[in-house]
Specification:
Elements (H helix, E strand, L loop, with lengths): L1 H22 L10 E6 L7 H16 L4 E6 L7 H10 L4 E5 H4 L18 H8 L2 H11 L3 E6 L4 E6 L13 E4 L3 H9 L3 E4 L5 H6 L5 E4 L1 H6 L8 E9 L2 E6 H6 L2 H28 L1 H7 L3 E3 L4 H8 L2 H5 L5 H12 L4
Parallel strand pairs: 1-2, 1-3, 6-7, 6-8, 9-11
Antiparallel strand pairs: 3-10, 4-10, 5-8, 5-9
Helix pairs in contact: 2-11
């Protein structure tokens, strides 16, 4: 009898434990970590990377560490084309990329890179942030990349070991360009020989005279140390440099809705900071730093350059999808007669 009571007591305790386990509230699960890789091709001191770090700080703080941002400067994940391919596949989540590389995936973008198209930065940003820019951004979605926003950057100019005072000075020169048909058309029109190559190969190419020069913005010319091998910077100001923050559409869709909102908001905040703080700081001192580094700054009259290149617009536009219609649309928007 005593043993039966003990057995019943044991069963009662066991039943209570089982019922308790079944009714116990489940423990809160820790949200799964999300890693976002953001890549670009310039060095860590450049405003691309400073803004990427600003984004990292903001998004990690606002998601309480659920989102971890890894930044990859200096072509660590490949050149711009490789980064764009990574965005398409979702193996790279975000990038800061030029329209020159983007035009290889969305050919319509090349029309925006035609020489001397915009009279100044304000006009360029008005078009890029307006209905025309939005129409072009929609085309990015078709190749699996989402536009976040555009940098308010500056103009590209030529650097070499000789001064470029007139279009005739470019005749026969091998000038490195991006693999962008619009950029290449500028130099063909001016009598030069455009030579596309990876940015990471350019220093050695100039040093070994594989090319005679290149073209870029003053801050990138300085940061890349290309001024060590090309000592003259001629302010041809031939094309406004369009750079975009981008996110993989696959990544965008996979993010939980609340996290997606935070990521996009933080990216736009970092882009705004880059435009309003970091770019002005770096651009304002770039020419002075170049001069201190022994570079000769040449300020040619750009009207003869503009006249020659403008005459090539219509022929250049024929090479792009819907190029003639898009050129007409742009010309009307900026008030230029073709």
């Amino acid at each position: 009898m005593k043993k039966a009571k003990m057995y019943l007591s044991f069963l009662l305790v066991a039943l209570i434990l089982v019922l308790g386990a079944e009714t116990k509230a489940p423990e809160a699960q820790t949200p799964k970590k999300i890693v976002l890789k953001i890549a670009h091709v310039v060095d860590p001191s450049h405003h691309y990377e400073l803004a990427a770090k600003e984004f990292k700080k903001k998004v990690e703080e606002k998601t309480k560490g659920q989102v971890v941002v890894e930044t990859y400067p200096n072509s660590q994940l490949g050149n711009e084309r490789a980064i764009l391919e990574g965005l398409q596949m979702g193996s790279i989540q975000m990038g800061i990329i030029t329209s020159g590389a983007l035009s290889g995936f969305v050919p319509e973008f090349a029309i925006l890179d035609m020489g001397y198209l915009f009279k100044d930065e304000a006009e360029a940003m008005k078009i890029l942030n307006g209905p025309i820019g939005q129409e072009f951004s929609q085309k990015m979605l078709k190749v699996g990349i989402r536009d976040i926003g555009t940098l308010k950057y500056s103009y590209r100019s030529v650097y070499a070991n000789k001064a470029i005072n007139t279009p005739a000075d470019l005749k026969g020169m091998k000038i490195r360009t991006m693999e962008n048909p619009a950029h290449m058309a500028i130099f063909k029109a001016l009598g030069a020989s455009p030579t596309p190559m990876a940015y990471g190969e350019l220093y050695t190419a100039i040093q070994q005279k594989v090319v005679d020069g290149a073209e870029n913005l003053p801050d990138l010319y300085f940061n890349s140390k290309h001024f060590e091998v090309a000592k003259v910077y001629s302010l041809t100001n031939h094309v406004f440099c369009i750079v975009k923050w981008m996110i993989s559409e696959e990544t965008y869709k996979k993010l939980p809705a609340d996290v997606r909102t935070i990521v996009m908001d933080c990216a736009k905040e970092a882009l705004k900071w880059e435009n309003e703080v970091s770019i002005p700081q770096q651009m304002s001192g770039a020419l002075g730093k170049l001069e201190k580094g022994g570079v000769k700054i040449v300020r040619p009259d750009i009207q003869p350059f503009r006249a020659i290149v403008k005459n090539s617009w219509s022929e250049t536009a024929k090479k792009f999808p819907n190029g003639e219609a898009n050129l007409k649309m742009l010309a009307e928007a900026i008030g230029v007669k073709l």
